[in-house]
Amino acid sequence: MRETGNPWTPVRLLLSRIARFWREQIKIWKTVGDWTVLLYIVVPGLWIFGGIWLEMLREPPGWLRALPPELAIVLFVILLFTGRLRTFLEEADVLILLQRQRWIRTLKLGGAVYTLAAQAVTTALLFTVLLPWLRLHEDFDAAGLALWAVFTLACRLLTATVVRLAASRLRGWRLWMADAALGCALIAFYAAPVLTADNSHAVMGACCAIAFAGWAAAVVLTVRRRGGYEADLAAELGARTASANLLLATVVEKKPKPMWRRPVVFPRSGRLLRASDPGAVLAEMRIKAFLRQLRHLGQGFRLLGIPTAALISVPGWLSLILAAVLMMLVASWLQREWREWADEPFIAQFRWEEAAVRRGAALSRFRLGLLAAAWYAGVAGWMFAGPAGLLTGVPAGIGLWALINLAMKDLPARKRRVAAETAAEPDEP
User: Fold this and answer.
1) In this predicted structure, what is the pLDDT of residue 35?
2) Using CA atoms, how far apart are residues 93 and 96, in angstroms rounded to an integer?
3) Contact 368/333 with Cβ under 8 angstroms?
4) Contact (Cβ atoms closer than 8 angstroms) between residue 133 and residue 43
5) Which long-range contacts (C-beta less than 8 Å, at least 24 apart) are formed by 56-61?
6) What is the pTM of this model?
7) pLDDT value at position 37?
8) Alpha-carbon distances, residue 168 vs 14, 175, 208, 418 (angstroms)
9) What is the pLDDT at residue 424?
10) Rounded-to-integer distance, Cα 369 and Cα 364, Å
11) Cα angle 195, 200, 201; round to 5
């Protein structure tokens, strides 16, 4: 790859990969929309949103004034960890460009500059959208808000770079510990000046300088380091497929990627129930499979958080009825989740008896929803009669949950297709 007779240079290679990346993203988004979508949906939507934004900027509504602007810090803390350091490295570079470190360094440095530009645009857009809310913050004037935006950008860049450095050097539990420590330190570094600066431009300016200096030092370490291509390639793959994953998130089920040698929840995979009949075995398998999926953790928080707000906001007598309705909804959701799980190829390949399937569904459903049912009953009892209602509501809620679970015992526990295929199979001689 000598420069004589070769039109390619490191900078030209970088620019060609950036252009190819954007061509790929445009092709992906063209699969869901064309100029008609842009003309009839996007443009009118931006026009309407712009009018609402200007009206809120001139005269903030009452509900916007009631929101404390300090809550925006939570949004920006989440924003810190959404960035991704780009390097524009590809799999073939490990073989072709590995001996030409100048080319690798140019790609990494150009990726850092590209990351700076991309995150500057997204940070500016977010602050612009939230400006009618942020300007209500008495501790920040116009210059203070600008410094806040710059400080957010600097912390985003610093976070993306140091997280990549950790991923390129560490593996396994060490990487998890390092990410947790870095996350806590970066959140503290970001939140402390914003909450305590008291519109001091000098303090915010100094914090911006420190954050940019840390980012520059981390970029230098990233450019100079040898190795760590696995982390860079994984990040580039994620960047190229982010749009496609977003569009296909509701269409294609994404199987979780194993990250540990053994499950974190129930690593020994021992027995959970005393009974040893096929129904109990199915229930144990279901409970373990349910609790080992990370997506169910988020669903569990929503099942507890959102209904709690509803129970608190209604009168006491109505909260008792609402708690019972919520229990029935949770039971219906768990039954639907059971049927989806029973349709998995590994489970469906065994010829389970219908009685065992229904017993397994009932046992697992009762145990998985017991905490939510007790919580609903406790909150409703507290709203109705205070501490006495809490003490009597939890046992009553558990009893009601047992009755709901018993009433659903005779419902179909498998999809009709699976049940029909099982019934159609002849018995082996």
Assistant:
1) 75
2) 5
3) no
4) no
5) 56/132, 57/131, 57/132, 57/135, 60/132, 60/133, 60/136
6) 0.67
7) 74
8) 21, 9, 26, 46
9) 46
10) 8
11) 115
Mean pLDDT by 10 residues, the chain (429 residues): 64 93 90 77 86 89 78 86 88 77 89 94 93 80 88 94 89 83 90 80 91 94 84 88 76 61 69 81 85 74 81 84 91 87 80 84 90 92 88 92 86 58 48
Phi, psi of 273 (to 5 degrees): -115, 150
Task: List the structure tokens of 142.
Answer: 């116009």
Residue 143 CA to chain centroid, in angstroms? 33
Secondary structure string (H, E, C) spanning the chain: CCCCCCCCCHHHHHHHHHHHHHHHHHHHHHCCCCHHHHHHHHHHHHHHHHHHHHHHHHCCCHHHHHCCHHHHHHHHHHHHCCCCCCCCCCCCHHHHCCCCHHHHHHHHHHHHHHHHHHHHHHHHHHHHHCHHHHCCCCCCCHHHHHHHHHHHHHHHHHHHHHHHHHHHHCCHHHHHHHHHHHHHHHHHHHHHHHHHCCCCHHHHHHHHHHHHHHHHHHHHHHHHCCCCHHHHHHHHHHHHHHHHHHHCCCCCCCCCCCCCCCCCCCCCCCCCCCCCCHHHHHHHHHHHHHHCCHHHHHHHHHHHHHHHHHHHHCCHHHHHHHHHHHHHHHHHHHHHHHHHHHCCHHHHCCCCCHHHHHHHHHHHHHHHHHHHHHHHHHHHHHHHHCHHHHHHHHHHHHHHHHHHHHHCCCCCCCCHHHHHHHHHCCCCC
